[in-house]
Amino acid sequence: MSETDTDSTEKPALLGRVLFGSGLVALAVRNLTNLDGRVAYADAKGVPEAETLVPAGSGLLLGGGLRISVWKAPKLSASAVAAFLIGVTPLMHDFWAVDEEERGAELTSFLQNITLLGAALAFFGRAREE
Description:
about 80% helix, 5 helices
């Protein structure tokens, strides 16, 4: 193994997976425990079929986060997380389309989701190497 190669069981890789995955699981659980509120917010943002898409999206986060943490079906899991973030981020955190009072909070959420998307893509790339 070269200096740049890492084993997915090494502590930094394991710790990164568990931190990323547990954060996604926590977000999914928050969505699911306040489902009515999350659906209402999505409706207000113009998301079609919000009563179906919000729980489905939360399921993608939950399953993706759990499976990335334990490195089971990592390509599928990272893809599910990426799909969720690609679909949700521009619709729900449209900082460019809100008034000045809301812009800062929406920009922060947008950037956080972009950061999570980057991590999901990195995990997908790592899984493809295996």
